[in-house]
Design brief:
mainly alpha; 2 domains; 6 helices
Length: about 140
């Protein structure tokens, strides 16, 4: 839990620093006319790029889509069949677990058992170990 809190704090600090840097660079260019529509679009794109960089620096892979998403769900289902009952939750839990794996977290099997327990799904530490092995073997956690 301490690793998760530290990771979130680091992400928030990085986001704040990035936004401060953006404000400083755009305020000196106030002599150039811009339309509010193009500015809003540019800010959204920049914001998305910042989010991706922050996630990458925290060891969190991007959300998988298409075949990669299905491969991840299949790997998780082999490790612990119930965890994919809620696919979106399983994907989010896998991405967050990668952060712990990539950052040398402690008690990874326990952490996985906690992350992959939600609603009416309970995951044991043994299943957590199998999930960690599946995430590593699939290459999903490589950022």
């Amino acid at each position: 839990m301490k690793t998760r809190t530290t990771t979130y704090a680091a992400v928030l600090l990085a986001a704040a620093a990035a936004l401060t840097a953006c404000d400083a660079s755009t305020s000196s260019d106030s002599s150039k006319p811009t339309s509010s529509k193009s500015s809003a679009t540019a800010e959204q794109e920049l914001s998305q790029k910042q989010k991706e960089e922050i996630s990458k620096s925290a060891g969190i892979p991007p959300k998988p889509t298409g075949a990669q998403r299905q491969q991840l769900l299949d790997a998780l289902a082999k490790a612990a069949p119930d965890v994919v009952r809620y696919e979106d939750k399983a994907i989010d839990a896998a991405r967050n677990q990668c952060s712990s794996i990539n950052n040398g977290g402690q008690r990874l099997d326990w952490t996985a058992s906690q992350r992959f327990s939600y609603k009416d799904v309970t995951t044991s530490e043994a299943q957590g170990k199998a999930i960690n092995n599946a995430l590593k073997a699939s290459g999903f956690c490589k950022v």
